[in-house]
Amino acid sequence: MSKIALITGITGQDGAFLARHLIDLGYEVHGVIRRSSAPNIHRLSRIVAPELANGTLKLHYGDMTDFSSMVRIVGDTRPHEIYNLAAQSHVAVSFETPEYTASADGIGPLRLLEAIRIAGLTHHTRFYQASTSELYGKVHEIPQRETTPFHPRSPYGVAKLYGYWITVNYREAYGMHASNGILFNHEGELRGELFVTRKITKAVGRMALGHRQPLRLGNLDAQRDWGDAQEYIRGMHLILQQETPDDYVLATGEMHSVREFVEVALNHIDKQVVWEGEGVDEVGICKATGERLVMVDKDFFRPAEVELLLGDPSKAKEKLGWSHEKDFKHLVADMVQADIRRQELISQNGIELEDFL
Ligand code: NAP
Ligand code: G4F
User: Fold this and answer.
1) Ligand showing the shortest atom-to-Cα distance for residue 130
2) C-alpha–C-alpha distance, residues 230 and 309, integer Å
3) Position 348 confidence tier, pLDDT thresholds 50, 70, 90
4) Per the confidence metrics, is the pTM higher than 0.90?
5) Which residues are annotated as catalytic?
6) Which of 103, 162, 251, 305 could form a disulfide with 184 if both were Cys (CB 3.0 to 4.6 A apart)?
7) How many angstroms is it from 206 CA to the middle of ligand 2?
């Protein structure tokens, strides 16, 4: 009999890749989706089209803020493994919708854990919580590891802090196989377009096809530990295969600034950027033509910033045998290349790719 997995957030970047991975491993996969006024499964349908078409991937309507749907879906599917990836995952947006973010990202995991208990699955279902390097926020040590104290800097980070601790608490209180993956930023061609990496590679893809609109960004000096999403979802699965539940950092151990990301992405289309001015007046100019490629826009700064994140993945390497492979330059190049292909399709068909997927 195949193992049953339930993925919340299956329509997101990680959810789509994880669904593919688990199906390939022989799992029966179920996913939670939200009702939306327009289709929200374009990422999922790119990755698991056959399984969606033939019904072997089963989708259930639910919402992390709706306890009754959690109870129903967990009870109906009786999964061996739950991957809780659903979240309002945009840090800047969490300052605009703090209460909703707290409910979905903080209380959401509690609702799922309680749904497991109510269904009588306390010792049957293994639980993965999508925790985040945003927990470290204003960092207390560099690099950050599992023992580094937390200091979140946004409503998102604070909500995820509750999600982290309630997962630990249910493990300790009820003996549940409940684990946290503390994942540092991971990216790829399915990354949401409002995160800085995709925002940059999408703009560079458009520039490659002759578009002239400058890219508007916020804090160019923020530094992140960026890895490849497909590698990180394999780590999530490994975490749930351990005999003992525990918490793990997944990271590359390398850090780059937003500015460097822009430079490498533009180099990929043979443009070299020269920076002029300071603060909100800073611009990135094309060295060859003098054209404005990048502008700083104060609207993209956050009320409180996480200036740097750098993870130490030693524990994951030692205990899970997990480590990252794709380096920063290849990650950026692959994302730019995917966005160039996408822009070519858009210009050939005259519509956004999502519209016909
Ligand atoms: P994402 O692309 O933004 O996907 C988020 C998913 O959550 C989507 O499927 C979304 O559904 C769903 N969702 C949002 N609110 C929901 C609600 N109230 N009820 C049910 N579903 C809801 O995020 P991701 O990058 O794949 O990240 C996956 C998880 O890992 C998130 O929890 C995120 O916070 C966490 N994380 C991500 C990173 C990273 O670098 N990517 C790093 C650390 C932790 P719709 O499609 O309907 O919006
Ligand atoms: O791409 P970001 O929005 O990602 P952020 O805030 O690091 O959060 C992501 O990674 C977390 C893991 O550490 C996840 F938990 C979370 O769900 C999400 O996936 O911003 C990265 C950096 C920030 O410092 C931001 O201020 O880029 C800076 N930035 C500069 N200009 C910008 C922009 N970010 C965005 N989104 N848009 C800009 O124009």
Assistant:
1) 1
2) 20
3) confident
4) yes
5) 132, 134, 156
6) 251
7) 21
